[in-house]
Q: What sequence folds into this?
């Protein structure tokens, strides 16, 4: 079948887009549609035409792969859909868009150029371009407010979230919902409207409002975008483009304003980063030696050991995906406490309108509390989430080995311990794997899947697949201390503390990184997670520290004073009863004193240095991890940081950011830090090599044959 095919059902033409997997508007598709429309116009026997997608969806948008070719100059072909859309709209015979699956981006823009839109009940429509750092580029910002009104038009273009068919119907974006066979319904609809005069969306100005009505809508949209999509240029550009639809005298001028804004966004670093993230999120699922089609184990039931902070959240994640889960504790009091927290979390979600009461009740029924291993024999997978301690973990795994059926997966949520050593407590190390969830486990999207040396391919493939099922993004990592995310987070937080000990204020360090785009500053993050966690680990590993190598000192002293962070009402900051952080002059004074006593020169530190020290600490460690093979590709590290550590999406992740800055520049800056601060800043060999060869981390992936 060709990309676009024209067939006929008596007097109705059927134009089918056939570009799997998502019918993107790749080169050839717009041309094919235009040609078919020309034939429809010319053929006197045709009275109306239907445009429909083959396979699982209508058109899901422009071909995102083409954007990189445009910005790198590999193709001169721009996003030239507008002439095709005008051709459709100018057709004197009704053109009906029959939507199933997703009409996203260019797909919705195509649909809006039709004279009618009908949809399956499960269809979704949206302009998600802002999630790629761009704005609709084929008149979406001009036609959508004409169909849905200015308020909804601006919301859909600036937030980028899709809506379901029922809402689209209410808004006037679609004209009818078709139950049952879509093509059959489309044919009947086409016969109803054949011969009737057509109406061009671009001429429907009645919903465009007046300047007085629109001004507050745009002001609120801008305020919302600045708050919720901090630092992003595309949402503001999308608002400007919709505003142009309401202010400029003609549709064509509106399209021209949209084109300019679209091009600015497309060529921005933000868009390149966000497109990298789009493909990266799909790339991480690809594991070279665990190919698609590797056998998986059906996970229809699970068990969690430990109902503490993590175990409770993990049980919720399984229940939310409809998987029944046993939740085991050591005593009734701990079990009751764990269940009460789960109940409270669900109740909060119901209060906030995220879940219905019925959903909560159904999910709670799926969580079966227990104090014994009695029912563990039947479950397909167990996730251990007991206290962090090797002896205890080994005891639990030994027990699991005895009670679980052959074939069930034994996973540990450990954040620091060696998976192979844990696996050695069983007679089935191939069934053992790390599933490192992030707190709160029912909310955070990241799941580091830690491959032990014996973990079987079947077990890996199952965990990768399962991650999607429970709403997570699974990234396969190797078994090293801290795995990928926490191993890099160590140097990042170390530098943040050093900067404070050298004279930067706690607030200045947090603000610099917040302004860079991090969800939270590193000092506030420490307070949230609990400063005592790192303190305990440092105490345990003190014997491994090299004499003469600088170690953070202030955080340990704060802990000695009982300042563990939010949980004790004070850490780097003071906290009020609502857990709002308040800068604490006492901390500033103490840290200055401790720094001076330790002989650390106190100085003014620029915002730029704060960002470089912290972010390049991530990059340097990331480069080591990559070279040592604990991450498959640099994009895997990026996806971990974006989904587990609040790294800003528009920077593309730490490794992408370093490539954007240029590794030569990053390397030189790290060399400066090395000279000033000593061996902790020794440049990673891979970084040095790539910088000298004028390459980036992305080139390393390609050289390794692991790139997209
Ligand atoms: N262009 C190119 N490739 C695309 C694509 C697109 N628009 N959408 C999806 N793909 C690819 C994916 O990369 C993936 O490839 P892979 O199998 O090699 O990894 C494959 O199609 C399947 O995608 P998913 O794994 O995401 O499949 P799902 O079934 O989970 O989701 C979807 C389908 C909801 C359509 C989802 O892919 C999606 O949201 N796609 C992006 C939609 C989008 O952003 N559209 C706007 C594009 S920009 C635009 O239109 C600009 C215009 O205004 C000019
Ligand atoms: P927690 O202290 O909140 O909960 C541990 C629970 O395990 C306690 O309720 C305890 O009663 C229970 N338990 C101990 N032995 C048990 C046994 N034999 N059988 C059943 N239950 C038992 O600890 P948390 O924070 O939930 O951590 C659990 C694991 O998750 C640790 O390995 C930790 O390193 C890891 N982790 C923690 C994260 C966090 O942010 N808290 C993040 C990622 C991983």
A:
């Amino acid at each position: 079948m060709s990309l676009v095919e024209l067939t006929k059902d008596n007097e109705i033409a059927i134009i089918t887009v056939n570009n799997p997997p998502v019918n993107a508007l790749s080169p050839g598709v717009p041309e094919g549609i235009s040609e078919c429309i020309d034939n429809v116009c010319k053929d006197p026997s045709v009275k109306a035409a239907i445009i429909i997608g083959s396979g699982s969806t209508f058109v899901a948008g422009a071909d995102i792969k083409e954007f990189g070719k445009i910005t790198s100059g590999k193709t001169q072909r721009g996003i030239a859909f507008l002439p095709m859309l005008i051709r459709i709209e100018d057709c004197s015979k009704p053109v009906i868009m029959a939507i199933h699956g997703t009409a996203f981006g260019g797909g919705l823009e195509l649909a809006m150029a039709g004279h009618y839109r009908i949809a399956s009940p499960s269809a979704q429509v949206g302009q998600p371009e802002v999630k790629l750092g761009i704005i609709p580029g084929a008149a979406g910002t001009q036609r959508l407010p004409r169909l849905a009104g200015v308020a909804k038009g601006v919301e859909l273009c600036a937030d980028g979230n899709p809506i379901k068919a029922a809402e689209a119907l209410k808004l006037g974006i679609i004209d009818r919902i078709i139950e049952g066979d879509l093509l059959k319904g489309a044919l009947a609809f086409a016969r109803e409207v054949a011969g009737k005069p057509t109406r061009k969306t671009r001429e429907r100005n009645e919903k465009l409002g007046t300047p007085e009505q629109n001004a507050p809508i745009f002001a609120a949209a801008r305020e919302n975008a600045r708050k919720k999509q901090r630092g992003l240029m595309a949402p503001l550009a999308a608002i400007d483009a919709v505003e142009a639809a309401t202010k400029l005298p003609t549709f064509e001028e509106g399209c021209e304003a949209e084109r300019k804004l679209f091009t600015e966004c497309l060529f921005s670093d933000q868009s390149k980063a966000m497109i990298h993230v789009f493909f990266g999120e799909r790339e991480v699922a690809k594991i070279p030696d665990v190919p698609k089609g590797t056998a998986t184990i059906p996970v229809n039931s699970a068990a969690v050991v430990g109902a503490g902070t993590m175990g409770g959240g993990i049980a919720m994640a399984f229940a939310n995906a409809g998987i029944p889960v046993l939740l085991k504790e050591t005593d009734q009091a701990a079990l009751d406490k764990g269940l009460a927290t789960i109940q409270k979390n669900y109740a909060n979600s119901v209060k906030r309108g995220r879940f219905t009461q019925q959903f909560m009740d159904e999910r709670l029924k799926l969580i079966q509390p227990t104090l014994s291993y009695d029912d563990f024999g039947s479950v397909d997978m167990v996730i251990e989430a007991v206290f962090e301690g090797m002896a205890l973990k080994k005891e639990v795994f030994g027990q699991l080995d005895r009670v679980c059926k052959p074939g069930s997966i034994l996973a540990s949520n450990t954040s620091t311990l060696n998976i192979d050593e844990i696996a050695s407590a069983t007679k089935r190390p191939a069934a053992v794997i790390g599933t490192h969830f992030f707190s709160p486990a029912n909310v955070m999207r990241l799941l580091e899947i830690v491959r032990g040396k014996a973990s079987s391919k079947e077990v890996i493939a199952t965990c990768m697949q399962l991650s999607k099922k429970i709403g997570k993004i699974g990234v396969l990592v190797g078994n090293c201390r801290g795995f990928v995310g926490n191993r890099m987070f160590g140097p990042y937080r170390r530098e943040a503390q050093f900067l404070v000990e050298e004279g930067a204020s706690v607030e200045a360090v947090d603000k610099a990184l917040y302004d860079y785009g991090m969800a939270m500053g590193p000092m506030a993050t420490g307070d949230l997670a609990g400063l005592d966690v790192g303190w305990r680990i440092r105490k345990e590993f003190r014997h491994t520290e090299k004499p003469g190598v600088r170690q953070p000192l202030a955080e340990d002293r704060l802990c000695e004073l009982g300042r563990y962070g939010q949980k004790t009402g004070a850490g780097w900051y003071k906290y009020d009863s609502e857990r709002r952080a308040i800068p604490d002059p006492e901390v500033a004074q103490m840290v200055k004193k401790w720094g001076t006593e330790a002989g650390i020169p106190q100085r003014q530190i620029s915002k730029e240095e704060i960002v470089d020290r912290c972010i390049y600490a991530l990059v340097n460690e990331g480069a080591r991890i990559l070279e040592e093979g604990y991450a498959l590709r640099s994009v895997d590290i990026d996806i971990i940081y974006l989904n587990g550590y609040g790294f800003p999406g528009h920077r593309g992740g730490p490794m992408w950011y370093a490539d954007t800055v240029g590794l030569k520049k990053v390397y030189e800056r790290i060399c400066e830090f090395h000279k000033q601060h000593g061996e902790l800043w020794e440049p990673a060999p891979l970084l040095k090599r790539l910088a000298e060869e004028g390459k980036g981390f992305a080139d390393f992936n390609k050289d390794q044959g692991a790139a997209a």
